[in-house]
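Quarterly update from the structural biology core.
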Amino acid sequence: LGQLMDGLKQLNLHRCANIIFVGDHGMEDVTCERTEYLSNYLSNVDDITLIPGTLGRIRAKANSNLKFDPKAIVANLTCKKPDQHFKPYLKQYLPKRLHYANNRRIEDIHLLVERRWHVAKRPGDVFKKITGKCYFHGDHGYDNKINSMQTVFLGYGPSFKYKTKVPPFENIELYNLM
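Predicted structure, tokenized:
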């Protein structure tokens, strides 16, 4: 950042160039001890493919002859434990504000996971086999309404008011700014 600003000053462009710095997401502390395992909810976790993490996604296992029934899986994952840390959705029922449903490449089932939690198939999936240590200590991808998923925005140049703080906004609004 310093090199960029020094270069602009050397070229005498520091007062006429508009610069925007943004992050793509925030971060949240996560540990293996805060992981929900689908094996505690479903008896057939080997019959599905789970993309694990902060937004679990479930699809039919590749080359499987088994019948994949998304509605039945969601029913088997809904409100099963009082301290359950995820909520399952069929993709067409995901909250509209996520803008994430109308594409054939999007998995049929999504697990919206609570902040600071992960989802995996079974305990062995989150610990390194040799050391037994956790694969992760932080992550992103949670619901974008969570404050920790917000990120930095910094605007500098003649089009930006000096020392002005603006309220949070969605990154998509950058297109309107530019």
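The chain has two domains: 1-24+151-176, 32-137.
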